[in-house]
Amino acid sequence: MIDVVGVWKSYRSGTRMVDALRGIDCRIDRGRFAFIVGPSGSGKSTLLYMLGALDRPTAGKIVVDGQDLMAMSESAQNAYRREQVGFIFQSFNLISNLTAMENVLVPFLPRGVTQAQRDRAAELLTITGLGNRLDHHPYQLSGGEQQRVAIARALVKDPILVLADEPTGELDSKTGDEIYRILRSMQETSQTTLVVVTHDRRFITPDDLVLEIQDGRLAEQPEPAGGNGDGNGNGASAAGLESPVRTSE
Fold it and tell me: Which of 10, 136, 175, 178 stands 20 to 30 A from 73 (CA)?
């Protein structure tokens, strides 16, 4: 489903080049529940955003469902994000003047909403426990309820991939437990591949794939021989790097 090969991400900080990711290689099989974990600043969210084509690597390749994201045009990447990927963010990102139903239907608004899409949105909100709050606005909902709306919005287009960045980061532990129960239930039903960035390992089960990032590299992955820099802008490019892919098995 997802192959990440030799991915580097570098950016300039003052006069220095900083490597946020350093030769990441991994594979996530279709239908897996995967976690990206690691300390703050390790590159977790950077990798997640690249899987969603919200950011581009400095070097390397990312292939999702047979699609080379780096070879896509900007318009193709926009279509990929709009039609194939569902996003769940820590801050919910709901539109305040829209109802719960309308927020779920946001991905379809530019092209018009069909009755089938409305029915699907209502179904997802009902599954997440909000069937009696379809017409409520975000300010009328608790944090957990707002995150349920965000989950329904991510799934309403039947995406091949759902990406969640600290989805329970602004919620209390009890509400966080409920959110993960909903995520697992819906992921198992739809068999969508779900990748979550989190600091909280208590939600991880033995069946989950865990990708632990430390200092821009996967734990247990060897120190890369080449790269896009040594932290001071003096390294060689890794654009042609061919590396073995770590599997989820």
Answer: 10
